[in-house]
Prior knowledge:
Layout: H1 5-15, E1 44-54, E2 57-68, H2 71-85, H3 97-118, E3 131-141, E4 145-155, E5 163-172, H4 189-203, H5 208-214, E6 230-232, E7 235-239, E8 254-258, H6 259-262, H7 268-274
Parallel strand pairs: 2-3
Antiparallel strand pairs: 1-2, 3-4, 4-5, 6-7, 7-8
Helix pairs in contact: 4-5
Amino acid sequence: MRKVSCVLLLTVLLLTLGCGGDKPSPAKDEGGTDAVKAEDEALVTDSFKYSLRSEHGTCDVFIDYPVSGPHALVAALKTFVKSTLFEDGGESKSDNPDDLVRAYCADRQEHLAKTLEQMGITHVSRDNAPEEGIEIRKVCQTARFVTFEVYRYSYITHGAHGEYSDYGVTFRLRDGHRFGNDLMERMDTALYAHLIAGMREYFKVSSDKQVQEICTTDLREMPLPTFPPYLVRNGVRYHYSIYDICPFDMGDPVVTIPYSVALPYMTEEGREMVGDASTP
């Protein structure tokens, strides 16, 4: 099977626009952006991308980077972007986004060169060259929170298929607090029922039994994703990573639980972030 990265990257580019809708794939939300209150300083981001090709392969990067906004939030987002791009956390890297995207590609090219050397591969063809890439996209912004999704992919030559991950992170606008498992207070049978219903839709099957036959884990244990749930315009999103609950070729199920269902099981901080977003 040829690398999955090209197909997946095209899918993400087509679907990562705005925030809203519940879609059964690594899809992003559709819809508008809530207006930020006049008395608050608005978060403004800009997009930066870069691609670098060498004899070792190709590296691509796309980031939505904070340009202005509340100081604490901007600082938190810059730290988030750098720590996501670089394995060492990127603390020594410049805050200049043009420098960051170039540094990322240079870093990954060095990584590809070392990997090929360890594999004893001295030459790769253009059609079978390694690829690495990352996208950090703002997918939802309201008057109270902003959410980014991270899509990372990697293909090393001579592999059966590439690897990828896709997850989201929500930040509070007023102080840059990054939410994790502190959004949800507990799992409940009502939430679990929506998770299973979402999986039925994602897998395009009609029964819970069929979902269980596809999954590699016992669904009665109410499995949670590797990465914490996060907020989008119409609900709390649970994005399962590949291998979390099913084989690689079945993808990474995405289920968005409407706020009308999720609110009673959210923490106080989580409910505060939802605000008017919970109103249809």
